[in-house]
Amino acid sequence: MLIFSTSSEADLSKHNSGLLKFDKELPPLAECNELKYQYRWYVGSRDGCSCGFRHLHISAVELGFDLPQDWYEEEDEDIAATMEFFEVVRSLVADGYEVDCIDVWGHQTDVSTTVETMELLIGDMPPGKFRLMEARHFVFSKAA
User: Fold this and answer.
1) Which end of the chain has fewer CB atoms within 10 angstroms, the N or the C?
2) How many domains does the chain have?
3) Are 99 and 43 in contact (CB under 8 A)?
4) Does the pTM exceed 0.85?
5) Would you tell me how many other CB atoms lie within 10 Å of the CB of residue 130?
6) Secondary structure element (H or E) that encloses residue 3, with its range
């Protein structure tokens, strides 16, 4: 699951498409308490869940951010959905808002599975390289 927060009070559901869905109703997860900002969203993909984004399993996070590779099979729709999400994040950060998200694979309601917080300079990352990583809390900011 992908949970998201921002300091922007904008209605992010205006970005909803066939690949990306912002929903104000958060799942009952302990990680929701780790989100930093006031306005919180559940982010779904084409199937309604957050599975249709580029993800790295916790056992593969050392692969880091990278462009899609032939040897690491990913669906075109997952790549496109992730780029749509990334562009929403980039736009919010460019407009001066604070943004973070947590990629949650467990469904625990009382114990957080977040293992690391990662500060990302979003202006330095090409959109095609971004992917989510299991149990990571991403905090986005502009390039220095």
Assistant:
1) C
2) 1
3) no
4) yes
5) 23
6) strand 2-6
d(CA 114, CA 104): 8
> Alpha-carbon distance 53 to 89, whole Å?
14
Residue pair 83/127 in contact by the 8 Å Cβ criterion: yes
Cα distances (Å, whole numbers) of residue 12 to 8, 70, 112, 113, 127: 9, 33, 25, 26, 19
Residue-wise pLDDT tens digits, 83-135 = 999 999 999 999 999 999 999 987 767 888 888 999 999 888 888 999 999 99
Q: What does the block give as tokens for 17?
A: 């498409």
The Cα 126–Cα 67 span in angstroms is: 9
Structural domain boundaries enclosing 9:
2-141
Structure tokens given for 68: 């899609």
